[in-house]
Amino acid sequence: MADLVWPRQCGGCESTRSRWCARCAAIVRDALVAGPQRVQPDPCPPGFPPTWSSVSYDGPIAHALKAYKDGGRADLLGPLSQLLRTALAGALDAPPLRGHLVRGGAVLIVPAPSRPAAYRKRGRHPLLDLARAAAPELPIVDALRFGRGVRDQAGLDAWSRATNLRDAVGLRRSVAGAWVLLVDDVVTTGATLVESRRALLAGGAVGVSAATVAVTRRRASSEPFTPRATLA
């Protein structure tokens, strides 16, 4: 029973040294020092928003995200939220969002939608919790929902993911007049971000950027981004 309440295995590599071992902590630390990177899928689907990420989705990071979302490892919120916070800083400091902020425009943090079945199984919205931990000083709105049933995206190719999500996302809360910073755990094919962006713009958002914890290694990225601002 104690292991369920206070896990003894590392959430990244499953070693028994600690819940989050020094080696996995070093991966996060190195990513924070390197700073966020602007990323995009390859091929990049039409409508993909400007997106920043902090680390590759493999090894301990991939394991930690899966454990956090579906393995009951809420204790991994700390290191994962640090990575998301860095990606958010990259998005906030990049044009045209930076110009929108300078002009006094409103910004909302919006997590990608969760399937109702996944929410019932987990009993929580992991991305919403992650966004709140990463940017407690910014307004966060759970504005997106699935308007129809969709399949789990795991194991689907790019075409199947896009087809699965097409016209599936709608709004539960208004985003009119705000720039939306969309939050997700990982960029794979970009289908979730594309469909979410469509729904947000249709709902009156003036622009959409995105930030994710990780990006799949098989995806291409553009030049490294060196942030000039941080979330203080």
TrEMBL record:
Domain Phosphoribosyltransferase: 168-219
Top-rank lineage group of the source organism: Bacteria
Annotated CDD domains: PRTases_typeI
InterPro entries: ComF/GntX_DNA_util-trans, PRTase-like, PRTase_dom
One Pfam family of this chain: Pribosyltran
Family the entry assigns: Belongs to the ComF/GntX family.
Name this polypeptide is given: ComF family protein
